[in-house]
Design brief:
Elements: H1 9-15, H2 17-30, H3 37-50, E1 54-58, H4 61-71, E2 79-83, H5 89-96, E3 100-104, H6 115-121, E4 126-130, H7 141-150, E5 156-158, E6 166-168, E7 174-176, E8 183-187, E9 201-205, H8 208-218, E10 222-224, E11 227-228, H9 239-270, E12 276-277, E13 285-286, E14 292-296, H10 301-310, H11 340-348, E15 349-352, H12 360-374
Parallel strand pairs: 2-3, 2-4, 5-8
Antiparallel strand pairs: 1-9, 6-7, 6-13, 8-9, 10-11, 12-14, 14-15
The structure holds pyridoxal-5'-phosphate (PLP).
Pyridoxal-5'-phosphate is lined by residues 60-62, 86-87, 89-90, 132, 158, 160-161, 187, 189, 199, 201.
């Protein structure tokens, strides 16, 4: 089988090439590289798509999280509850701002924050909760929001892996992921569900005054040019990325559908194998499959990874070391935190190719070989 990839950006590009090329050239021709009209248009279009009042574009998803914590005025020593089972960025910004990461375990089905664990982790010093919608599966937001409200703690959704997803509340109301917390963050890293052709990120909120502060933090602490009210940073989405993302946003729902269709194929192929647990799809949300991640039971996972590679099938371990065990956080002494589900998942997960362009022929090749190897 030719050139299988975890994410195939080239084939996706070629389907929309004329539009994309024209949009890029248009920015180049205008020379409005920074804060050009496409940036504002994209922010407005994304706000409408998500059903939020404000979208503040920024340079990447990590910055989006950092700017959010800064705008909420968190102070050194404040506690931030999040999952250890996430990409490091979620946690790194907490440490960078000298806040204290407090890790909770995840649910073995959804891979997202266990809400009972959050309840137990709350202290008077808890100043923010960051649920991560991992692999495209939304965390269980309704009980989390209720708990956070009870304790008056802001919730920042890390929506970097789940843009385009929805969450349905018990009263039947359906909203987009990232629009439920006081702040939502996302990344436009090329391989994300809504990816640019370089770095990018955005912050969402429905709160008018918080939106102003977020903008100010992202822009050197100024809302009026050369009048700096606070220490901020310099974090912008460039115009070329915005122009590309405007086009890709129009395809986002269809991209999510394509990922779900590939997941359906995988699910059907793997469903009767006792050694394989396919991804759980929580009934409260629609999974957007940023990753398609299996749990392997009674199998040498790393050997499977190796043998797939021999068949030219890429697979990845997201993530081989959970955040609480990273040397980066040594000073916090989290390595011995009791997070049994996180530790268990770390040893048994494997992610297969997942993108918008997978053909039936490719899926058949991947699943046939995977089943043979897993046995
Ligand atoms: C990708 C990602 C980020 C960071 O995004 P960048 O744009 O790479 O900075 C943050 N959190 C999660 C869960 C991610 O997957």
């Amino acid at each position: 089988m030719h050139n299988l990839q975890m994410v195939d950006l080239k084939r996706q590009y070629h389907k929309i090439k004329p539009e994309i090329d024209a949009a890029i050239l248009n920015v180049v021709e205008s020379t409005a590289f920074i804060n050009g009209p496409d940036v504002n248009h994209f922010a407005a279009e994304l706000a409408e798509y998500l059903g939020v009042k404000h979208v503040i574009p920024c340079a990447n998803g990590t910055d989006a999280l950092q700017i959010s914590l800064m705008a909420l005025g968190l102070q050194p020593g404040d506690e931030v509850i999040t999952a250890s089972y996430t990409y490091i960025a979620t946690v790194e910004v907490v440490a960078l701002l000298h806040l204290k990461p407090v890790f909770v375990d995840v649910d073995a089905n959804t891979f997202t924050m266990n809400i009972d664990a959050v309840r137990k982790a709350i202290t008077p010093k808890t100043k923010a909760i960051i649920p991560v919608h991992l692999y495209g599966q939304c965390a269980d937001m309704e009980p989390l929001l209720a708990l956070a409200k009870e304790h008056n703690i802001p919730v920042i959704e890390d929506n970097a892996q789940a843009i385009g997803g929805t969450y349905t509340f018990s009263d039947g109301r359906t909203v987009k992921t990232g629009s439920m917390g006081i702040i939502g963050c996302t990344s436009f890293f090329p391989s994300k569900n809504l990816g640019g052709y370089g770095d990018g990120g955005a912050i969402f909120t429905n709160d008018d005054s918080l939106a102003l502060t977020l903008k100010m933090v992202a822009n050197h602490g100024q809302n009026k040019r050369y009048y700096h009210e606070m220490v901020g940073c310099n974090s912008r989405l460039d115009s070329i990325q915005a122009a590309i993302l405007r086009i890709k946003l129009r395809h986002l729902d269809e991209y999510c559908d394509a990922r779900r269709a590939a997941a359906d194929y995988y699910d059907a192929a793997f469903k009767n194998n006792p050694k394989i647990i396919t991804p759980y799809r929580a009934p409260y949300s629609n999974h957007v499959f940023h990753q398609y991640t299996l749990q392997l039971k009674n199998v040498n996972r790393d050997e499977v990874n190796q043998k797939l590679a021999e068949k030219n099938i890429p697979s990845m371990i997201y993530y081989p070391v959970p955040c609480h065990k990273q040397n980066m956080l040594k000073e916090y002494g989290t390595a011995n935190n009791y997070l049994p589900v996180t530790d268990m998942l770390q040893d048994c997960v494997i992610s297969l190719p997942m993108h918008t362009e997978l053909t039936e022929e490719e899926l058949s090749y991947i699943t046939k070989n995977a089943l043979e190897i897993i046995g």
